[in-house]
Amino acid sequence: KTDMSATWDEIRGLAADLQRVQLASAKQRLTERNCIEIVQRLSQMGLIKLVYTCDGKAFLTEAELAKEIREELELHQHRVNVVALQEALNIDLGTVEQRVRELVKSDPELHLVNGELMHEVYFRRVAHEINEALYERGHVTLGELTKLHGLPTQTLTSIVRQYTGTVIQGSQEDDALFTDRYLRRHRARVRGCFNAAIRPLTVQQAASQLRMPEKLLRTVLDELHSAGELRGAFQGGKSTYVPSAFSAAHDDWARRFHAQNQYMELEAVRRCGLVSEPKAYLRRLLADSGQEPIVLKTCVVSPDVSAGLEAALDGVRWLDVGQAITVPLTDADVDALLSPMLGSRPDLVQVAGHYVISRKWLADLCQSFDQFLNERAEALVKSDPSLLQQQHQRRQHQLDPTDADDDGGGGQAIGKIKSGGGTQGREIKVKNTKNKYAAGRAANKAGGKAAASEAGTDSGRDRDSVTVSLSDVSNQLRQALEKQEEAAGFGESSVSDELIESVYELLSPTLNSNLQSRLGSVLTADSANKRQASGACQARAAALVKQMRLFERGAAALGDADLQATLNKHLAKSLGAALMCTLLEYAALSCGLDDCAKQAAAAASATASAGLTGDQRQKLVEQLPAGEDRDWLTLINLALNGDSMEKLQSC
User: Where does the E3 UFM1-protein ligase 1-like N-terminal domain start and stop, copy by copy (predicted)?
Assistant: First the structure.
């Protein structure tokens, strides 16, 4: 006890000494300047790190700065702006920002968001506020929350994702939050809306009408469809809902329409918005009827349509498929329907898309143009003399292809005509009246083909270019087609210009060939007639020359010079004029100028008083093509106008 009492006495003494020291005032104090120098020295030695205030009157350590930052954060409800921290702490903004970043890096519960320092406590409080708003409204969007809390969407999304299921009682779809009660209510609305639909409904339209996010609606629809609570099906990648009632009504309509009309347009099925592959749909739908439908380009038709068309083609001359069947088909459909039929019917040909014509009837129709072709050939020969010249040229090539332009052979004119007899008989050379400018030249001995005509026939028509045009036969074709149509009992005429053009294209090769054949026959006959007439001209010219020589010798035998001169003038005006007209007739026949030849022949057979005057003869001469023949006959006519037998003989 004595020891314990001594110990307590010592303790009491020490306590009294301590109290006395504490209560006593210091005998020595450091000045403010000394304190500053000591702190600076410690800072320079790296023993302490200090942060100065903006006014430089105070400084604090980094630990104290971190402590004051946390105190300010707690004071501002765990969310404070860094600028507000700088104003409250009176520390340089850069220093505050740096220290805040260090704190955020070291403490996972601190977050720096858009220049604001936030604590996890604040995030949890935001989650509670979101849950309260969600409970009151049933759903809320991130956009609304962003405006309400002033936080970025990314931060809010992170908060929602972190606290959903714990603090936030709901589910998230895209940028919206929903409560389970809200989802159950809208699930019932979706089920009622889609089961009440009687027409196809797109998910996008339904989302707009129900005012639901499309993604949420798709999720609800998937759940309802999987549970078998929807009376319908989805098509087009689940973008369109088709009610079962609509599908059944559409199938029934397609069956009835096809049964009544024997066809079904693919576009009509596609317009309903139910079927993306109408061909496969109709083939499957109509296969139950026991007859496989015929699928064409734009529609499907019943096999009865094909059978009826085959029956209509039997024994037909020409047929408009559009009138033969009641189904409205396009040209592509008609072509697809006719192709398998015409493959086994070579006697028929398809023209103008939807017309079928018998080849035998085409041959008969072609024969009906024989009279027209004969008349056309004769008219061409009369209206175009150059055709006769080309025929003469072809004949020359056939006789001698290498010498078609020589003066000998068939192309030779009167040539040399001997007149009189004895020693006074003179030989008179009569100019060759062959039109050298109308004849072609042989371009190739091996080929034997005529080259281009010379200047004398430039205005003529090439025989090979003569064809039968559509305008020549259109009326006759129309009459033949309409007559056959009336016989078939189709009623009102449906012969179109398109059909006439198509028939003409089929007939034109044969018609042109027949026209060339008939033109050759007419030209051959006309050439024979002209050769006969030319021979007669030669004979008359020879006879006139002989008469002129006899009369000339007779006048010379009279011995009276004046009388001989008078008789020679009369001889030039009569027999000379007749000879000139005969030669003109021959030249006109060679050039194919029938009218000119007739006038010259009439003048040659007339008396001197009824003959042509010099001007009239010159007009006939000018009708000849330019060349040696016309120049030579012009000289003869001038000699006749001079009434000089010597000038006439010199020509």
Answer: 10-281
Radius of gyration over alpha carbons of the chain, in Å?
A: 62
Q: Half-sphere exposure (CA, 13 Å, Cβ side) for 25?
A: 2
Q: Are 630 and 438 in contact (CB under 8 A)?
A: no
Side-chain-facing half-sphere of 42: CA atoms under 13 Å: 11
Burial of 579 (0-12, 13-18, 19+ CB in 10 A): buried
Half-sphere exposure of 341 (CA within 13 A, CB side): 21
What is the rounded distance in angstroms from the CA atom of residue 214 to the CA atom of residue 512?
Answer: 73
Strand 427-429 with 294-295, pairing: unpaired
Q: Compute the distance between CA of residue 85 and CA of residue 511 in angstroms, rounded to an integer.
A: 109
Are the C-beta atoms of residues 386 and 378 closer than 8 Å to each other? no
Count of C-beta atoms within a 10 Å radius of residue 376: 20
Nearest-angstrom CA–CA distance, 79 and 123 = 9
- pLDDT single digits (tens) 583-626: 777 676 666 666 676 676 666 665 544 466 666 767 777 667 66
DSSP letters, 531-545, are HHHHHHHHHHHHHHH
- Angle at Cα 162 formed by Cα 158 and Cα 164, nearest 5°? 115
How far apart (Å, rounded) are the C-alpha atoms in residues 568 and 549? 11
Q: Please return the burial class of 614, using the count of CB atoms within 10 Å of its CB with bins 0-12, 13-18 and 19+.
A: middle
- Determine the 3-state secondary structure of 427 from DSSP: strand
* Across 270-288, average pLDDT: 81
Residue linked to tokens 């003494």:
13
